[in-house]
Specification:
By secondary structure, the chain is an alpha/beta fold. The chain has six helices and 14 strands.
C-alpha cells in the first residue's frame, strides 16, 4: 500500500513542542510521479510551504539504493518534515530507478549511476515545469555522485542554481566532473563528516581544489550517515544557509514549534 502524506494527523498542543526526529510540521504534501526520457515512472513526494513565498526548492538525490538508500533516508525525511514550515523551502524527494520505499517503487532497475542521469533530468524538469523557484540539487553519498556527474551539464545545469553535497565518496564522480563544476561557476557546498568512511575533510579539501567556488565544511564528530539529531540538524542548517543565501551568516533553525504538529515513525 502506498504511503499517503495526508495520513498525518495534526493537533494543536497546549504548549510549544520540541522538534524531534518524528515531529512533522505543517506543509502541503502530495505524492508525485514523473517519467524519465527512457520511459520509467519514478515515484516521490513534494512538500511545499502552506503559505507565503517559496524561498528555495531542494531536489534531493538519495544514498545508494543497494545499501539501503531511498527517498526516506533520514536527513531527507526530516527536511520534508521541517523545512517547508521553518524556512519556506520546498522539498522534492523521489526514488531513483528500481528503488522502493513506503511511497512505492520506481520503475526500472539500478544502473550504477549511469541510467540515473535520466532520473536527475526528469526530477529537475518536473520541478521546473511546476514553477518551483530557486532550484538546488542536494545529494547524499551516491546522490552526490549524481549531482556532480550531471548537475553542471545540460539539460540540468541551466535549471539549477547549484548543489549541496553530503558525505561525497568521489567514487563515480571524477576530476572531469569536478572540472565541469568549476567551469559552470555554480555554487557547491560540500559537507564532510570528520569520521566519514570514504572521504574525510582534509582529503576532500584537496580533491575539491579543482572547483575554486566549492566550499568544503568539515563537521566534527559526524559520520557518513549523519546519525543523531545533532548532526541531522546541522545538515539542515547548512543547507538552508546555502540555498537561501542567508545574509546574516550561519542559520540556526528553531528547535521548538508553537503550531499544529503530527508524529511519524522515526
Amino acid at each position: 500500500m502506498t504511503f499517503d502524506p495526508a495520513s498525518f494527523v495534526f493537533s494543536q498542543p497546549s504548549d510549544v513542542t520540541p522538534i524531534r526526529a518524528s515531529t512533522v510540521l505543517p506543509a502541503r504534501r502530495e505524492n508525485i510521479e514523473f517519467r524519465t526520457a527512457d520511459g520509467h515512472v519514478l515515484v516521490g513526494e513534494l512538500a511545499l510551504p502552506e503559505s507565503g513565498v517559496i524561498r528555495a526548492t531542494l531536489i534531493t538525490l538519495h544514498p545508494l539504493p543497494t545499501h539501503g538508500g531511498f527517498m526516506d533516508s533520514h536527513v531527507y525525511r526530516k527536511a520534508s518534515y521541517r523545512l517547508p514550515a521553518l524556512a519556506g523551502i520546498a522539498v522534492l524527494r523521489f526514488n531513483t530507478r528500481g528503488t522502493a520505499s513506503p511511497r512505492g517503487t520506481s520503475g526500472g532497475k539500478f544502473e550504477e549511476g549511469i541510467g540515473e542521469r535520466l532520473d536527475v533530468e526528469a526530477a529537475v524538469r518536473f520541478a521546473a515545469e511546476r514553477g518551483l523557484p530557486n532550484r538546488w540539487l542536494v545529494g547524499w553519498s551516491f546522490g552526490t555522485e549524481l549531482a556532480l556527474m550531471y548537475g553542471a551539464v545540460e539539460p540540468v545545469a541551466s535549471q539549477v542554481e547549484g548543489a549541496v553535497l553530503l558525505s561525497p565518496p568521489l567514487h563515480r564522480a571524477t576530476d572531469v566532473h569536478l572540472k565541469e563544476w568549476a567551469a559552470s561557476r555554480k555554487p557547491l557546498k560540500v559537507l564532510v563528516p570528520e569520521h566519514d568512511d570514504y572521504l574525510q575533510p582534509a582529503e576532500a579539501a584537496e580533491r575539491f581544489n579543482l572547483v575554486p567556488q566549492a566550499r568544503v565544511v568539515g563537521v566534527e564528530g559526524a559520520k557518513h550517515l549523519w546519525v543523531g539529531e545533532k548532526y541531522a540538524a546541522r545538515v539542515l542548517n547548512e543547507v538552508v544557509e546555502e540555498v537561501t543565501g542567508a545574509a546574516s551568516g550561519a542559520v540556526e533553525l528553531p528547535q521548538e514549534w508553537a503550531g499544529p504538529v503530527a508524529s511519524a515513525t522515526p
